[in-house]
Design goal:
Number of domains: 2
Strand order of the largest sheet: 3-2-1-4-5-6
GO molecular function: catalytic activity; metal ion binding
Strand content: 5-15%
Cofactor: Mg(2+)
Distance between the termini: 37 Å
CATH topology of the largest domain: Rossmann fold
Oligomer: single chain
CATH superfamily of the largest domain: HAD superfamily/HAD-like
Keywords: Carbohydrate metabolism, Magnesium, Metal-binding
Pfam families: HAD_2 (PF13419)
InterPro entries: Beta-PGM-like (IPR051600), HAD-like_sf (IPR036412), HAD-SF_hydro_IA (IPR006439), HAD_2 (IPR041492), HAD_sf (IPR023214), PGP-like_dom2 (IPR023198)
Largest sheet: 6 strands, parallel
Shape: elongated
Length: about 250
């Protein structure tokens, strides 16, 4: 198993750093508990699982980080698509109502964004969330002016866990996967970033560390205050300064 020091060296392999890509749910903000509450309440209302509320473990395993069409197909295999997606739309309406009261940023996100902005790195948000959700969350976090680009999974040929959304972000930013890394919190998102050829930093905000590492995460952090993250970033800043002096 790699050591903390080995994990932190991942930035050395992509120097010089050009861009940083972020998922949104569970990565910029601690939104998974809100999604879980909305799913649990609405599924119980319609008598799903004989009216027994879904557990958090069920949510993490089968719902978190996945695209709405995939979730609908899993939850309602016997429903027609229109009916299943109507349920998903109702859930998103409930989610957006709750978000206005309950959304919290992941600790340290604004500190990290400041670090990225000061170095003029390119940045994009890449999510399987519906556009209306994504734009609302980014706005509520005060990050509307931070991102150069917002990529929505359903607007790509394939959503995460396929690499298409991340490849679209790289193309839109004009960035190379060899000089870019990703922040993600879900198995599907990590698989998408890895498949797009980038190292992925996994946040343990909602999923067990062993699942994130198994999906291919290079470094695991609790939040953006994590010392291991800042050691890696400081080492990258030192390398960048050395390159500037050499030029």
């Amino acid at each position: 198993m790699p050591t903390d020091a080995t994990e932190r060296c991942f930035l050395a392999t992509i120097a010089p750093l050009e861009a940083v890509l972020f998922d949104i749910d569970g990565t910029l903000c601690d939104s998974d508990p809100i999604h879980y509450f909305a799913f649990r309440e609405l599924l119980q209302e319609i008598g799903y699982n004989n009216g027994v509320p879904i557990t958090e473990e069920f949510f993490v395993k089968y719902i978190a980080g996945k695209h709405n069409q995939d979730i609908a197909s899993f939850l309602f295999p016997d429903w027609d698509q229109q009916k299943a997606m109507k349920f998903m739309d109702d859930k998103e309406v409930m989610y957006r109502r709750l978000v206005s009261e309950k959304l919290k940023p992941v600790d340290g996100i604004h500190k990290l964004c400041k670090w990225i902005k000061e170095r003029a790195l390119k940045r994009a948000a890449v999510t399987n969330a519906p556009r209306e959700n994504a734009e609302l969350m980014i706005s509520m976090l005060g990050l509307s002016d931070f991102f150069d680009l917002l990529v929505i999974g359903s607007e790509c040929e394939r959503a995460k866990p396929y690499p298409d959304p991340y490849l679209k972000a790289l193309k839109g930013l004009g960035a190379s996967p060899h000089h870019t890394f990703v922040f993600e919190d879900s198995v599907s998102g990590i698989k998408a970033g890895v498949a797009a050829g980038m190292p992925v930093v996994g946040l343990t905000t909602g999923n067990p560390p062993e699942l994130l590492r198994g999906a291919g995460a290079t470094l695991l952090i609790k939040d953006y205050e994590d010392p291991n993250l800042w050691m890696a970033l400081e080492e990258e800043a030192a390398r960048a300064a050395t390159r500037t002096v050499a030029l």
